[in-house]
Amino acid sequence: MDIKQLVNITSRAWAVPILAALHEGVPGRQAPLLTATGAGRTAFAQSMSHLIEIGLVERNPGHGHPLRPEFRLTPPGKIGAEISHNIWTLAGEENQNLLRKSWTLPTLAILHTPHHFNDIQRALDPITDRALSQILKSLEECEWVHRNVDNEARPPRPIYSAANTGSKISAIMAPYLA
């Protein structure tokens, strides 16, 4: 997995919670997954279609009704589901809204080592200045990212690094993004 794949997976808000629920053993039907994740029907359907499209989830052939299909993880989906489950449980219930934001996990993945703002932006190529600054601010507020100013550089530049829970989440993803 590379950073572009991670950005693609997290581009749908409910993709990570769906993968985590499937890893936990929640039956792969719509009703149990909706209950487990708390997603709305439309957002769930979009996220599930996206997961099918990128090859992490597939319809279980021979199971379920055509209007109520059953889904299962593909082999690459099992790896993604394990990572998602570990991250989802580590974050805790109070921070799960933050995990559903598109750029949270890719930003934390980059910050397994300290980086300047421009380095993060280059690594997450399609991200805008505004989106990156907002996600960094959100991650700072919940103390998942630490901002330290490099006063020896001219002009002084901030250096961002994962901290606390953010550091643990970053460590979970780092081996898979090599």
TrEMBL record:
Annotated coiled-coil segments of the chain: none
Superkingdom: Bacteria
Keyword annotations from UniProtKB, A to Z: DNA-binding, Transcription, Transcription regulation
Pfam family, one: HxlR
Species annotation: Maritalea mobilis
Domain HTH hxlR-type: 90-178
Single Gene Ontology MF annotation: DNA binding
Lipid biosynthesis among keywords: no
Name assigned to this protein: HxlR family transcriptional regulator
PROSITE patterns xrefs: HTH_HXLR (PS51118)
Mitochondrion listed as a keyword: no
